[in-house]
Design a protein that fits this description.
Helices cover 81% and strands 0% of the residues. With 171 residues, it is mainly α. The mean pLDDT is 91.
Length: 171
């Protein structure tokens, strides 16, 4: 198989994995939100359960993968900003659990995607946190504007349509 064909297959696999991650995030927000409701509205208890089950699964996988202690041994030498991923994850999951039943899953995830898109463009463009610099091109900026427009339509499209419909009825 040619190198170009392998690269295409790899890229398609990456796209499908990324799409699956998006589906998992939507389902996770929905089930965690419902779990919080079942737990009497206790957002933190639902987040704790979510992280506990995730920790158990990751522990098993990491132990089976090997070299866990060697990998963990470098943690004391790391800069603080590389060690806050768990805190950020806890805040994100707790926020999603809190907001999903209040603003709806589509609105929540539209705002999450907007936040992820804008922050990731800045992180890539400026090489923040040591990531490789990937300048924002004009086409990427246009794509971001299109996606943000979609977010705004998701959030406010029904209201805009209602106002437009009322305006047309008066004419």
């Amino acid at each position: 198989m040619s190198e170009r064909k392998i690269s295409l297959i790899t890229n398609i696999a990456y796209i499908l994995i990324a799409f699956s991650v998006g589906v998992a995030l939507s389902v996770q927000a929905a089930v965690n939100g419902q779990l919080a409701v079942a737990m009497g509205g206790n957002t933190l208890a639902a987040a704790f359960y979510s992280f506990l089950t995730g920790t158990i699964v990751l522990t098993v996988i990491a132990v089976l993968n090997g070299n866990l202690m060697i990998a963990l041994s470098v943690l004391p030498k790391q800069s603080w900003e590389y060690l806050i991923g768990g805190l950020l994850g806890a805040a994100a999951i707790s926020g999603a659990i809190l907001l999903a039943p209040r603003i709806g899953l589509a609105n929540l995830l539209a705002l999450v995607i907007a936040g992820q898109l804008l922050s990731s463009l800045a992180i890539d463009h400026f090489g923040i946190l040591g990531v490789a610099v990937r300048p924002v091109s004009v086409i990427k900026a246009i794509g971001a504007l299109v996606m943000i427009s979609g977010v705004l339509l998701t959030l406010f499209g029904d209201r805009i349509l209602d106002v437009a419909t009322v305006g047309l009825k008066h004419n």
